[in-house]
């Protein structure tokens, strides 16, 4: 009986590991990595780059549940999405290999994680704001995003952001949408749910009149759901930056140089096409101009 | 500032109302579990085991997203109130039941030997002793319930924790914001603890 159990366990483990090796690293990121640059310049002893190289991996604060941006694929165990791939490419630039360790960060933990050195960078749709810039340094911006409005098909009355006034608006918890709605329609009631599927369900069940979310995510939703309609173009401009420990000007410049390089070489656009470009039609946009 | 106040008031309201609801339902369930009728006892036992063995977060998600599917749509606050009250009622029922069971059976028998009816022996002998013993367990449940209301923020209710997250999203000062929120919860829990001590002395 005991032997049978061990045999069954072994079979199970073998089955699991077999499943993993069947998708070695996934195709998309491998293709991107072949084109990725590697830093070949001087490294100041004691600098962030030096620390990361000695450690042998890049510690990234990010998400595992953001579709198109940074989502863990439950089948392959691979992290996919725009932010996730950029993290891998940054590790490749620093280390010459895509060794990363992702720590799940949240909007409450991002600043402390950077301040106490738990992570090297935050790559997590981290909108650059003046308040945050007092607490962390931002490299980038690396992505220009905007909040859009979605309504159930057949609903009328919301044709522009100002129409949200007095309405109940569903937004993703802890997303820039919370502030965006308050800015365009201070009288709107904001209803927050943790994930995109919950927000969609709540919209369908009539808990709110509209759903405000990053346009890329809404486009992806609408492509799968015929009952969802997008209202106009994005009404905000959110610039995402890579969070770095406050005051580390050297590492900020290092990451900015890398962002410029992949923007110029077309790698940034490749990443966009492989992720957000799979749901947003048209050519890849130009990467935003690096601030400093 | 109004956001802070809204969140705080919602948390206080949710705590008070859910606890009141939990005590009401919990008392009924406790009675079911004590009465000498096997069927009613079984109903009480099933209630307790079903409600307390499924996490509150699961109940909240089921109530908020599941009930509208079967045509029951309540405002989010009242949905959260119902789920929290019914969940905590299971714990309240067990605290009350163990309080009553902790009174030695000889006490009830002696009361009846003295000629008291069953309701009289309950009112004058068993319940006074039991109530003193359930004060602290109930206070524990009330404090746990206070903290559990933070889960309502996950399903759209603007409670104190959700309000703090919104504020932090702009201020980017999590240590400051969440220390403040923690202190608010501490004050509420300390208030419950103080109330429990006063009640305990009165019952003594």
Automatic annotation (TrEMBL), chain A:
Solute-binding protein family 3/N-terminal domain spans which residues?
Answer: 57-279
Q: Does the keyword Transport apply?
A: yes
- Is Signal found in the keyword set? yes
Q: Tell me which UniProt keywords the record has, alphabetically.
A: Signal, Transport
Q: Which residues form the signal peptide?
A: 1-22
Q: Which PANTHER family match?
A: ABC TRANSPORTER GLUTAMINE-BINDING PROTEIN GLNH, AMINO ACID ABC TRANSPORTER PERMEASE
Family membership, please give it. Belongs to the bacterial solute-binding protein 3 family.
- Provide the protein name: Amino acid-binding protein
Tell me the organism.
Lentzea cavernae
TrEMBL record, chain B:
- Gene3D superfamilies listed in its UniProt record: MetI-like
Q: Which family does it belong to?
A: Belongs to the binding-protein-dependent transport system permease family.
TM ranges are 12-32, 44-65, 77-96, 138-155, 175-196
Q: Does the keyword Cell inner membrane apply?
A: no
Q: Where in the cell is it found?
A: Cell membrane
Which PANTHER family does the annotation name?
A: L-CYSTINE TRANSPORT SYSTEM PERMEASE PROTEIN TCYL, MEMBRANE COMPONENT OF AMINO ACID ABC TRANSPORTER
InterPro entries membership: AA_ABC_transptr_permease_3TM, ArtM/GltK/GlnP/TcyL/YhdX-like, MetI-like, MetI-like_sf
The entry's protein name is: Amino acid ABC transporter permease
- The residues the entry assigns to the signal sequence are none
Show the Pfam families listed in the entry.
BPD_transp_1
Entry membrane topology = Multi-pass membrane protein
